[in-house]
Amino acid sequence: MSHTCRIELDGTPHEFPVVEGSEKELSIDISTLRDRTGYITLDDGYSNTGSCKSAVTYIDGDKGILRYRGIPIEQLAEHSTFVETAWLVIWGRLPTEQEMERFSRRLTMNQMMHESLRSHFAGFPPNAPPMAILSAMINAMSCYEPQMMDIEDDNTMEKAAARIISKVRTIAAASYKMSIGQPLMYPHPEYKYCENFLHMMFSIPYREYWPTPEVSRALNLFLILHADHEQNCSTSTVRMVASSQANMFASCAAGVCALWGPLHGGANVAVIEMLEFIKQSGMKVSEYIERVKQKDTKLKLMGFGHRVYKNFDPRAKILKDAADKMLARLNISDPLLDIAQQMEEVALNDDYFIERKLYPNVDFYSGITLRAMGIPLNMFTVMFAIGRMPGWIANWKELHDDPKSRIYRPRQVYTGHTLRDYVPVEQR
Ligand code: CMC
User: Fold this and answer.
1) pTM score, two decimals?
2) Does the active-site annotation cover 306?
3) 247 falls within a domain
4) Looking at residue 172, what is its pLDDT?
5) By residue range, what is the domain housing residue 236?
6) 267 lines ligand 1 (CB under 6 A)
7) Would residue 226 show up in a list of annotated catalytic residues for this protein?
8) Same structural domain for residues 162 and 45?
9) Which atom of ligand 1 is nearest to the CA of 266?
10) For position 123, which CATH number holds?
11) Are residues 123 and 26 in the same domain?
């Protein structure tokens, strides 16, 4: 196999190296293209652009493969916890017992917010979107962590990672408590990561909430499945911000903003709104799908389609099974699950979706799982953000540790006016 690529421009051939990834993925290194030829590449939406080399997550979209640091998502979903998976994603290997113990201790030590940070919540209106609060508060955390602004060794790196991963759940739960007018609950030092989050969400003074093992397990699973997903919109945003050498808090806060949109993490809210609409309007699933196909409505089947997965999304498969089992064990019957299952069946047999390779993605069944846990709809995307934090941190670290990293600075093809003169206001 040739390890160069020949491109002919204006009759002159140019050779570029072919870079091969560890799973034999091939790419053409065009980093010298502009210097040598004056041309740049144009790839709106980056479908064909490898923005970096990364060793964190591997996806094969045709085969429905997702691996964190080489380990299949199915194995992690079955055997791991979110905290262990987070360490794996950030550090590149499974932790030893001592490393796990140290990281868990650091998570516990960092679970509280600075008391002054708690008072920031009073500045938000009661109906403020929790994603806005989350992003603002992660950024505000940097004001309280001057010693974390320059991360120069692994020890500080682990402390900083523990701080964000631990405090993000405290902030998330506090934003929910504010929105419903209940007192903010302090984290409990004896509780594990997921139980502690659920405690801060659902306990009230003098009435302790304790989740069932099914609910804790489902939350662990949900967070594991969201822990990383290579160069998606929010992770690329984190890397973009990090490339200017911005600190980890600022970079992750930017990731939260990117995740918010309905085409990305916000899809988990949009899916439930779509299913609720169908239920309440009494519309048939097939009728809704016909409306989606008409296109003039700009309506999409939310929770369907993916830029990379063109066969199935392995996360959706795991979550669907988990949602089924959890609902059965908790004896909950959710009419939205029935509508979702009907919708999947109709869409998967419809030429429109078959031709475009549109399958349910992770967000299609995640909302059903979150509802069964009692998580309110406006917190769904926040849950995704808590889960994605290890992936953002791992990508931040990868870039930070790379001595060759440069500021991200794409080019553009300018399509605006050519040179024209300024016109004084009275002559316009
Ligand atoms: N419903 C109906 N048609 C769709 C959908 C959908 N959900 N997704 C894609 N299409 C159509 C699209 O209109 C286009 O049709 P045509 O070729 O006739 O113009 C074709 O399929 C290709 O779509 P695309 O927009 O070029 O695909 P993309 O890779 O740019 O977008 C996507 C990927 C996930 C943004 C898109 O599929 C979508 O908007 N899905 C719904 C939102 C969603 O569920 N997002 C969560 C993604 S997974 C978790 C995450 O990343 O956060």
Assistant:
1) 0.94
2) yes
3) yes
4) 96
5) 73-263+377-401
6) yes
7) no
8) no
9) 52
10) 1.10.580.10
11) no
pLDDT on residue 1: 56
User: In terms of pLDDT, which residue wins out, 330 or 274?
Assistant: 274
Q: Are residues 167 and 296 in the same domain?
A: no
Lowest mean pLDDT among 146-155, 238-247, 252-261, 356-365: 146-155
* Three-state helix/strand/coil letters over the chain: CCCEEEEEECCEEEEEEEEECCCCCEEECCCCHHHHHCCCCCCHHHCCCCCCCCCCEEEECCCCEEEECCEEHHHHHHHCCHHHHHHHHHHCCCCCHHHHHHHHHHHHHCCCCCHHHHHHHHHCCCCCCHHHHHHHHHHHHHHHCHHHCCCCCHHHHHHHHHHHHHHHHHHHHHHHHHHCCCCCCCCCCCCCHHHHHHHHHHCECCECCCCCHHHHHHHHHHHHHCCCCCCCHHHHHHHHHHCCCCCHHHHHHHHHHHHCCCCCCCHHHHHHHHHHHHHHHCCCHHHHHHHHHHCCCCCCCCCECCCCCCCCCHHHHHHHHHHHHHHHHCCCCCHHHHHHHHHHHHHHCCHHHHHCCCCECHHHHHHHHHHHHCCCHHHHHHHHHHHHHHHHHHHHHHHHHCCCCCCCCCCCCCCCCCCCCCCCHHHC
Q: Indicate which residue of 226, 306, 313, 400 is catalytic.
A: 306
In terms of domains, do 327 and 232 share one?
Answer: no
35 and 85 share a domain? no
Q: Same domain for 234 and 154?
A: yes
274 lines ligand 1 (CB under 6 A): no
Reported as a single tens digit per residue, the pLDDT across 142-175 is 898 777 778 889 999 999 999 999 999 999 999 9
268 lines ligand 1 (CB under 6 A): no
Which residue's alpha carbon is nearest to atom 8 within ligand 1? Answer: 305
Q: Which pLDDT belongs to residue 230?
A: 97
